[in-house]
């Protein structure tokens, strides 16, 4: 048991999927895992452990934003020795070629988070990046399954609502999409020498203002989860 997780030692798998929304953790456990058991209800940030194709996998809600996901990632690594962490969530499309429902895999992150400067000081701009083995495996699987996907730089912003970030400039430098957690996950994975990958579905688009319907969101969400689970078990 840690401060925010109620699991007994050994209950959480060495591979964990991390949706922001705890109800998505429940949905993933009930839809994709067999024999899934809930190990955490603290703050209603549900966590489950079950089996995917015979492999033990956990799924843990993280809440929104980098301060929140950092709590769960720190405790999963330090208290439960988790080795592979997959952020699964939605993002806003920023690049014109990206469409609603596409999958975006974060090769690297760009962020306004103070966590980076608090870690390295203001003279270093550390680049939080994906684990190459997981990234490579995910690209292979998404290609085989003919999923529509893009790989590149993702903006992890501290505030959903802000007028200060020059998104046009970031788009012109090739940033594909925006979300709120991946940079913190990649930073902590680097600190503790763990493998991490962030995979998203595009739920809305900043340029076109398009939004996906609930049914479309569910279908592309399922593709993203399948991609993450297959990457997890095929990279062992
Ligand atoms: N901003 C931040 N996070 C997001 C967005 C967005 O527009 N869409 C989905 N997650």
Order of helices and strands: EHEEEHEEHHEHEHEH
Taking Cα atoms only, what radius of gyration do you get, to the nearest Å?
17 Å
Distance between the termini: 27 Å
Helix content: 25-40%
Report the sheet with the most strands, covering strand number, pairing sense and barrel closure.
5 strands, mixed, barrel
Quickly give the structural class.
alpha/beta
Number of strands: 9
Mean pLDDT: 96
**What's the tally of helices?**
7
Strand ordering within the main sheet: 5-8-7-6-9
Note poorly predicted spans: none
Overall description:
- There is one protein chain.
- The protein is α/β, with parallel strands linked by helices.
- It is 35% helix and 27% strand.
- The chain is built from 7 helices and 9 strands; from the N terminus they run βαβββαββααβαβαβα.
- The chain has helices at 22-32, 66-78, 114-120, 132-144, 167-172, 182-192, 214-234; strands at 15-18, 34-40, 47-52, 55-60, 84-93, 103-111, 149-156, 177-179, 195-205.
- A 5-stranded mixed β-barrel has the order 5-8-7-6-9.
- It is globular and about 45 Å long.
- The model has no long low-confidence stretch (mean pLDDT 96).
- Bound molecules: hypoxanthine.
What's this, in brief?
With 236 residues, the chain is α/β, with parallel strands linked by helices.
Write the layout of secondary structure elements.
Layout lengths: L14 E4 L3 H11 L1 E7 L6 E6 L2 E6 L5 H13 L5 E10 L9 E9 L2 H7 L11 H13 L4 E8 L10 H6 L4 E3 L2 H11 L2 E11 L8 H21 L2
Parallel strand pairs: 1-4, 1-5, 5-9, 6-7, 7-8
Antiparallel strand pairs: 2-3, 3-4, 5-8, 6-9
The structure holds hypoxanthine (HPA).
